[in-house]
Amino acid sequence: MDRQPVSSSNIAAIGYDNTTEILEVEFLSGAIYEYKNVPLVVFEELMNAASHGSYFNREIRMTYPYEKIG
Questions:
Q1: Which residues belong to any copy of the KTSC domain (predicted)?
Q2: Disulfide-capable partner of 26 in 10, 11, 13, 20 (CB 3.0 to 4.6 Å)?
Q3: Are 3 and 15 in contact (CB under 8 A)?
Q4: Distances from the Cα of 59 to the Cαs of 8, 22, 70, in angstroms?
């Protein structure tokens, strides 16, 4: 999945697959996580948020099932 670099103190890049509703988050630490069943609107809000990290922690981190893939 292609990830787009973002300006964040914790997140390096974010990717999204509209077909599978998988959100991929690459952290500055190098860890990569897949979050499942994430609606397109949540991805769009994340990408448009003033703070990607704050939005991620508030709306995604503990809301959607995830697994570490890298």
A1: 7-64
A2: 13
A3: yes
A4: 16, 15, 22
pTM of the model: 0.94
C-alpha triplet 55, 40, 64: angle, nearest 5°? 60
Encoding tokens for residue 62?
A: 């503990």
In what order do the strands lie in the sheet containing 4-5? Answer: 4-5, 11-17, 22-27, 32-35, 66-68
Residues in the chain: 70
Per the structure, the complete domain to which residue 30 belongs is given by 4-68
Q: In which element (H, E) is residue 44 found? A: helix 40-48
Q: What pLDDT digit, counting tens, does each position of 2-47 carry?
A: 999 999 999 999 999 999 999 999 999 999 999 999 999 999 999 9
